[in-house]
Every structure is written in C-alpha cells, then in structure tokens.
Amino acid sequence: MTETTQPTRPLRVLAAMSGGVDSAVAAARAAEAGHDVTGVHLALSANPQSFRTGARGCCTIEDSRDARRAADVIGIPFYVWDLADRFREDVVEDFVAEYEAGRTPNPCLRCNEKIKFAALLDKALALGFDAVCTGHYAQVTVNSDGSRELHRASDMAKDQSYVLGVLDDRQLAHAMFPLGDTVTTKDEIRAEAERRGLAVAKKPDSHDICFIADGDTQGFLAARLGKAEGDIVDESGTRLGTHEGAYGFTIGQRKGLRIGTPAADGKPRYVLDISPVNNTVTVGPADALDVNALTAIKPRWCGAAPTGPGTYTAQLRAHGGETEVTAQLVDGSLEVTFTEPVRGVAPGQAIVLYDGTRVVGSATIASTVRAAAGVA
C-alpha cells in the first residue's frame, strides 16, 4: 500500500499559532504549499497575566501579539479565539484533580486531546475548514485506501508523537503537521523563520506548564488544595518525616523529600507510593521502583484497536525512550508486560504504544506491578 504524507489538493487550513517559532513556521509552510490558511491564537486564560510572562509560555498577551505579527508577515488572516473556560475545565481542573487523587497527569497531552483536536477542531470543521495545522513534530501518513496513520517525526530528537497519541481516526483525518516530515535541527527552523522575516525566530522555547505562572507546581497545587500535613514513611511503615500535602510528590521523585534520617545503606530514597486516602508518602530504595507490568485504562487508538496480544515498543514520558512490551486488551483495559523492568512509572501518566514508527494508541496508567514485591 503506497503512502503519502502530503494532502493531494489545496485545503482550507486553520493554523493554531501559539506565538512561538514552530507554529509560525508550520503556518508559513502550509501557506507556501498552496493551502488557504487562517491563523488562530487560543486565549486560554481569562486573566492572561496569571499565566507565564515573557517568552516562556504559550498563553500570554505577548504570545498573541507575536502570533499576530507572524500571521501578518505570512500574509494570512488571523483571529484570537477564547477557549479559556474549556481549558480551565478540561486541562487545569483535571490537572489539579489528578494530583489530588495521587496520580501524575500530563497537561500537554490533555490539551491536545481536549482543546486543540477537540474544541478547536470541532469549531474549525463547523466553519468549513478541512484541517487544523500545528507546529508539532510528528507525521500523518495517508494510505492508498484513505486510512491515516500517526508516525514519529523524521527527526527523533524532536519527535512529539507521544503527546499526540490520544488522537483518534477522526482527529487524524483533519490534522496537519508540516514540521514532522523533514529532518531539520531547531537551529535550522529558526534560520528558516529568520529568512521568512518572522520576528519569533529567536524566541526561546517554552518547556514548563503554561498555566503555572512561576513554575512552582507544588505551590500552585497548595494554593488550590490547601496544605495538609501527613507522614513520610519507609516500606516498613516507620515514620521518617512529614510533608505538607501528598499531592506535592510524584512516583520516582528523589529531591525535596526533606527526610532527616538517612537510609541504613546511605543510599538515596525515592518516592514509591502516594496514598491520598491517609495522606501518606512512602519512600524506599531505587530498585523498589522497578515495574514489570501495568494496567492502563481509557485506551484511545490511532486506527483500529489491536486484536489479541501483540509486541510493541512503549514510551512512558514525553521525553523518554522506548521499551519493549507485550500488550493486549482485557475487558476494556490495556494489560502491559515489560520485557525488562522499568522505573518511575506513575499512575496518571500515559503509555503510548508504537509499532516501529507508527503510533498504535495510548492509555492512562491505572496501576503497576512492582518487580521486587510482585504487587501494585
């Protein structure tokens, strides 16, 4: 079956422009390819000053102005759409609720699922657009039968397919990623932006969570959930210290535990478990983090759902590597077994399955099986 990564006809394209260099170059490439492109910046906060300032976020007044200037240079219409209510409900409140429940969410993945390729895409289709274009580094291939597949970017160093693993068939049918099929460095993307006269060419990348203004995730959660002192214990239940809220910890965390008593072997301790029920954080040695298997819920497939057990590679973090797994659906949940133990796997994270470079789908980790104890 032959495949292509390019649309065969000009499309009406809505380009999501964050105000950064990647989305600006993506919009410019889409326009240069002959598509009828309109730029849109998403206003995601009712009070933009509460989000990141300067060039570090994607939700500020400055970013919307940068996006508008880029659209003017490209020569495309530009609008600002207010999706603040949806973003607060589907991303920010979900983020807080997940941490409160002792889980570790990925807000960027949730934003792609609920905002960029749900709320934004639905509005775009209602207005007669054919596709939504973003600056993500990933590829959508079109098979000869018209079916679509999501693949890793040509340049693995910049691949962002992990945070797009929540996209289903319908969303893939209307997704365009102009940066994903060329092997170019970020310096080359910036050089291209400069050649095109885009002022964002030298704008720093954003890395942190856009809706946490000062980068202090624990402080952000404390302001919304309140301080709640609890115990830090070892695997035997011995009390080692206290904390001000179990939500401030993640599985695998080593720094910031503030435990006065050193371990008997002198080695660092890591967070092994977070229990919101009794507000307790359990810590222990690194090898106690080894996970052999997991169960994940709410699977979403980038194509047909797999039938029967299969062998895949899996990615567990946005910037993590791949690991070999076997996986199968059991009563609607994804049961995954690792060929070799992995560490730092936390409920709430997404696991994304790959068949070569193709994204098979994703699911949310619900529980894990530890190698040492053989229990979740």
Please outline what is shown here.
With 376 residues, the chain is of the alpha/beta class. 23% of the residues lie in helices and 30% in strands. The longest helix has 20 residues, at 107-126.
Overview features:
6-stranded antiparallel barrel; 18 strands; 7 helices; single chain; SH3 type barrels; 5-stranded parallel sheet; Rossmann fold; Elongation Factor Tu (Ef-tu), domain 3; 23% helix; globular; alpha/beta; 376 residues; 30% strand
- By CATH, the topology of the largest domain is Rossmann fold
CATH architecture verdict of the largest domain: 3-Layer(aba) Sandwich
Give Rg in angstroms. 22 Å
Helical percent range? 10-25%
From the N-terminal CA to the C-terminal CA, the straight-line distance is 43 Å
Question: Quick one: how many beta strands?
Answer: 18
What's the name of the CATH homologous superfamily of the largest domain?
Answer: HUPs
Q: With helices defined by DSSP (H or I, 4 residues minimum), what is the helix count? A: 7
Structural class: alpha/beta
What does this structure look like?
- This protein has helices at residues 21-32, 61-74, 84-100, 107-126, 169-172, 186-195, 217-225, and strands at residues 3-4, 12-16, 36-43, 78-82, 131-133, 138-143, 148-152, 175-176, 230-233, 239-243, 270-275, 280-284, 291-301, 310-315, 322-330, 333-342, 350-355, 358-370.
- The chain is an alpha/beta fold.
- The chain has three domains: 3-202, HUPs (Rossmann fold, 3-Layer(aba) Sandwich), CATH 3.40.50; 227-288, Adenine nucleotide alpha hydrolases-like domains (SH3 type barrels, Roll); 290-370, Elongation Factor Tu (Ef-tu), domain 3 (Beta Barrel), CATH 2.40.30.
- Helix 1 packs parallel to helix 2 (61-74) and helix 3 runs antiparallel to helix 4.
